[in-house]
Specification:
Blueprint (H helix, E strand, L loop, with lengths): L29 H12 L1 H12 L8 H17 L3 E5 L7 E6 L7 E7 L18 E3 L24 E3 L7 H17 L6 E7 L9 H7 L1 H4 L3 E4 L11 E3 L1 E2 L1 E10 L5 E2 H4 L6 H10 L22 H9 L4 H8 L11 H4 L4 E8 L10 E2 L2 E10 L5 H14 L3 E3 L5 H6 L3 E11 L2 E2 L5 H14 L3 E3 L8 H8 L3 E3 L15 E3 H15 L2
Parallel strand pairs: 3-6, 3-7, 7-19, 8-18, 15-16
Antiparallel strand pairs: 1-2, 2-6, 4-5, 5-20, 9-17, 10-14, 10-16, 11-13, 12-14
Helix pairs in contact: 1-4, 1-16, 2-4, 4-16, 5-15, 14-16
């Protein structure tokens, strides 16, 4: 027998966080009640469909399994009466497209998510990444496996489902499909034409998305695109973001001797590329996180008064978040996280040179490599930003090349750096919070989820620039995943209550 649900306050206490005073829960609308009642009566079936989807490997470059994902999602939509098809261009992973036409509707709402996932090393995962596992809490909190046959329904809202893309980004796809089930069962009519766009290359930089949209513009136009990607606020409060930072990625390799040399026989004589790279990287930022590349901050579009007010009104969970992450200090202090996310950043994604730990040798390495990502805000151009970084490297005394240097180049210059952009990048976008559609989305989200954290720009990057340029629309982000979901890393997970909340939110947005 299904228990009567308790309305869970929107502002709850984070696992391991100090207790916080919850905001009053919203009075549920007919749409929210329908979504909640359907979910309460069908939790086992919902989780079963989700597990089946998560079990299909979805690394962007695995084209065979990407197609399996696309076909599966296509079937999920058609089962619910959505007119669905695959849309693409040669050499690209398909976009899964669906449409629900509403008689008399005067506007079209597009909901976006992506079905591809980040690359991974299965050895880093506690359990295989494409074998979904339910645990009663976070692994870091000694979460124990709940065997599927023994799972008790309704599920513990703090339980976690572990699998690649459990949060990023298959959860919103499942939430949308379940929301359609609930709306249909309750006989609730839609007020807008609804289009679904599920991309298969987001984790590889959305290299073909703009081309696909532009080639099929009549399918993808809409009054607003709702981007259902990313996490909610760190205090578990629903977040609405009116923009996203752009991104570009650069690889840097510096060189030492042609081959590795004995560190005793050649130390103090042969230049060490790992040391040279470390010095180069430290020249790019000061101790408080400010980027030192000349003109890096030029051209940034200022925040409006509405945007400044939203940042000032947002809750500040920094102290609790530092405790969760074992941080003794933060970059940019005393500015808070939400303020710093409105600025560009330069991040070292990873470094490599020779070997470490038990595999380390007494050698001078022959080369050292770092991969950098730069997050951009409105007003910055990703191509220009890469050129400014290249110029900074030159000013540090390096001869910069864009192809692997041969012996003649390396002998002609004491310091050589191979600098290559990754091949993708896009600019930041920010939708005005004062637009009528912006205010309506906020009203609808608040009706479903209660008080909302409003941010001009979220920290992560989504291809909003490509979308807006291709189809001439506005974009607003309405994420559902928990902040501690492990996306882009190992042991990715979705908190069960976030999935349940997401179903109610998607029902509200689809029926707005």
């Amino acid at each position: 027998m299904v228990r009567t649900a308790v309305i869970i306050p929107i502002l709850t206490t984070l696992a391991g966080f100090a207790a916080a005073q919850p905001n009053p829960a919203p009075v549920p609308s007919a749409t929210t009640r329908a979504a909640r009642q359907w979910r309460q009566s069908h939790e086992q079936a919902i989780m079963g469909e989700f597990v089946d989807l998560l079990a299909i490997p979805n690394v962007t470059t695995d084209t065979a399994n990407i197609r399996r994902n696309a076909d599966t999602i296509l079937g999920m939509m058609r089962k619910r009466g959505v007119a669905a098809k695959l849309v693409g261009i040669p050499g690209a992973n398909p976009v899964v497209y669906g449409e629900l036409k509403t008689p008399g509707a005067t506007r079209t709402i597009v909901l976006y998510a992506h079905y591809d996932g980040q690359p991974l090393d299965a050895k880093e995962w506690t359990t295989p990444p494409f074998t979904p596992v339910l645990r009663d809490r976070l692994i870091e909190k000694d979460g124990q496996v709940i065997p599927w046959p023994a799972a008790q329904y309704p599920l513990n809202p703090e339980a976690r489902l572990y699998a690649r893309s459990a949060s990023d980004d298959k959860a919103p796809i499942l939430a949308m499909m379940t929301a359609l089930d609930a709306l249909h069962a309750a006989g609730l009519r839609l007020h807008s034409n609804i289009r679904f766009v599920f991309e298969g290359e987001e984790e590889a930089g959305s290299t073909n998305l703009e081309k696909i949209l532009a080639a099929n513009k009549e399918l993808f136009t809409g009054d607003v695109w709702l981007i259902c990607d990313g996490p909610v606020a760190q205090n578990r409060q629903q977040l609405v973001a009116f923009g996203a930072r752009g991104v570009t990625t650069v690889n840097i390799t510096v060189y030492g001797p042609r081959r590795e040399l004995h560190s005793g026989h050649y130390g103090n004589w042969a230049p060490n590329p790992a040391m040279a790279l470390a010095r180069l990287l430290t020249s790019m930022k000061d101790d408080n996180g400010r980027v030192l590349v000349d003109h890096f901050y030029d051209g940034i579009a200022p925040l409006s008064e509405t945007e400044k007010r939203a940042i000032a009104e947002a809750p500040v969970p920094d102290a609790d978040l530092m405790k969760e992450l074992w941080l003794g200090g933060t970059e940019g202090s005393p500015k808070k996280l939400i303020e710093l996310l409105q600025q560009p950043s330069l991040n070292i994604r990873g470094m490599a040179s020779s070997r470490t730990g038990a595999q380390a040798s007494n050698v001078i390495p022959s080369s050292a490599t770092a991969t950098i990502d730069m997050r951009l805000v409105k007003g910055m151009d990703h191509l220009q930003t890469v050129e400014r970084l290249r110029e900074h490297i030159r000013r540090q005394g390096f001869f910069v090349v864009d192809t692997e240097p041969g012996g003649d180049v390396r002998m002609a210059h004491p310091k050589v750096a191979l600098v290559t952009a990754s091949g993708f990048g896009y600019n930041a976008v920010r939708t005005s919070m004062d637009l009528p559609i912006s205010r309506e989305v906020l009203r609808v989200v608040e009706s479903a989820r209660g008080p909302v954290v409003k941010v001009p720009t979220m920290g992560g990057s989504v291809p909003l620039d490509a979308i807006e340029r291709a189809v001439g629309t506005h974009t607003i982000s309405v994420p559902i995943a928990n902040h501690d979901n492990g996306q882009h890393s190992f042991n990715e997970n979705i908190r069960v209550q976030n999935l349940w909340d997401g179903i109610e939110l998607m029902a509200a947005l689809i029926s707005m």
